[in-house]
Amino acid sequence: MWFEPALRPDIAAGPTDWQQLVHGIWLREQIEQQLDPHLTKMFGYHFVRVGQLAQQLQLTQIRIGHELQVAKQLPAEVLADTNHWPFAEHSLDAILMVAELEFERDPHQVLREMSRSLIADGYLILVGFNPFSPALLPGLWPGRGDRFPWCGRYFSKARINDWLALLNFEIITSEYFAPSLFIERLNPANSVLQRLYQWFPQLGSMYLVVARKREMPLTLTRQRAPLKAKLKQMPVANRVE
């Protein structure tokens, strides 16, 4: 489930409502708190929320003028397949995806489509499930493998960051949050788990990656000195004119 190839011919459909997830309302609130400080730094004209979970987030700190909700099924302002993204190149300022890559047939292609539509220095915000969190262990119990979130396939934050680096994104934020065990009868904000999370952030059930599209190389190269300047630095006896 966790380390399968990225491309698959078949994949389960993702959740369409937070109440389909264990402690879904609490999880939604955690994501909202995590996103707000980053959204205050983003400006522009067009902000796209991908998927119905992203649509249902109450984000009060968005500074981008026009928001658009895109999903594969209703309700949504635009019905679209993320593998065949309908937006023009360099047309969007920021894109938010929440628990989407886990339920995509070809996540590489999805990220390529997102990159294509973003302007230079545009933002891609990804929220997903942490495959190394103990929250996913209950999915191994009989009868739970076909329920959310365990019926998806999960990619590590490091793997996501590698994919983004290949697309020339600069990682602005990469962190874990929302420690939980995803067990109905347990308090999601368990005090013991919260204390452990302070020492081991990898226990967070979710990850957040904020990346910025760069069109210039991220590694500066030294400028080559002109040939005449090099000749002037050479001893006279070594010059060939």
From TrEMBL:
The protein's superkingdom reads: Bacteria
Q: Which SUPFAM superfamilies match?
A: S-adenosyl-L-methionine-dependent methyltransferases
Q: Name one GO molecular function term.
A: S-adenosylmethionine-dependent methyltransferase activity
Q: Which UniProt keywords apply?
A: Methyltransferase, Transferase
Q: Does the keyword Kinase feature in the UniProt annotation? A: no
Which residue ranges does the record assign to the Methyltransferase type domain?
70-126
**Organism of origin:** Pseudidiomarina maritima
Recorded protein name is: Methyltransferase family protein
**A GO BP entry:** methylation
Q: What is the lineage of its organism?
A: Bacteria, Pseudomonadati, Pseudomonadota, Gammaproteobacteria, Alteromonadales
Q: Which Pfam families match?
A: Methyltransf_11
